[in-house]
Amino acid sequence: MIWKIFLFLLISFVSIAGITFPIVATPAHWYEFPLIMGLGENAKIIFFHVPTAWLTVVAFFMSTVYSIKYLRNKDIVDDIKAHTSAQLGMIFCILATVTGAVWAKFAWGSYWSWDPRQTSIFALLLIYGALFALRSAVEVEEKRATLSSVYSIIAFVTVPFFIFIMPRIMRGLHPGSADDTNAGPVVNFKMNGNMLLIFFLSLIGFTILYYWMWYVGYKSMLYKEKLNKQYH
Amino acid sequence: MNIVVALLYSALFDAFVLKNLPLFLYAFVLGNIGIAIASTLIASIIAKASSKGTLYPVLSFPILLPLMLTLIDLTKQAMDGTTFETSYIELAVLGCYDVVMIAASFLLFDFIWKD
Q1: Interface confidence (ipTM) of the complex
Q2: pTM for this predicted structure
């Protein structure tokens, strides 16, 4: 219970800090952020956009871990855990795409410009959408679990290509692409100390939030399955 | 069939001149291997999943996407005549995709096929 209160306080602080702390040219107080080259006032969405993208990777990774566990043990609870994690990963992937599109409107002029990173997050949406399509096509529970575990592992194998490799080697608009001279403000830790603090707090808060959502999700799915089996 | 398409392209389109032919051939062979591996794996999943084959393009298109984007980039570079040093990264990505997909197929096929 304590950690839930702590999480609530953490996320509220991060949200308020992320939105209201002003960005000025010469920061004088501890609550002011400096300007990042080329981004200006709209840089504050970085506190929400990068954690959702990070959470997508974490959720899909956990889905793969539980899929591997299922293939070893054939315990249906592992499949439920993997499915919940995949659902959460899908939600955060959509959120990352939407926040990215909103930021793109302010920074690049249009919501969708087929930048390599935008294209690859869209491809990721398609891959995991296909996972749900596969799950709905198979009726037998054990076969469905086996096939979706296998597909989840294959899908995760392509995730490093999409998230980490391709947007860095292809030319595009997103920070960190081959056009950029540095690897972007996040990888190079060039952000100011205050921004870095809020950013990492946001990352930690979102990760704990993911764990909580996953826990509640898989428990509720487990109970739903048990109730279904009882009455049919 | 891919060879036929490549030859037809070179015959019919005037601007299709490959300035760096070895690069194109490397991309051709590695790309074909990659498509074959990924498509076979997905096809085996679909064969076990349902009697209809309509799910196959839904599953295979996103899995083949990194391969397709890299291959398109490499073909363009072969037509432009870039050297091997410059396009080394894309060739490395192609090789990685092939190796990773072969490994995944070896490990996962038993789970798919055996009941």
Answers
A1: 0.83
A2: 0.83
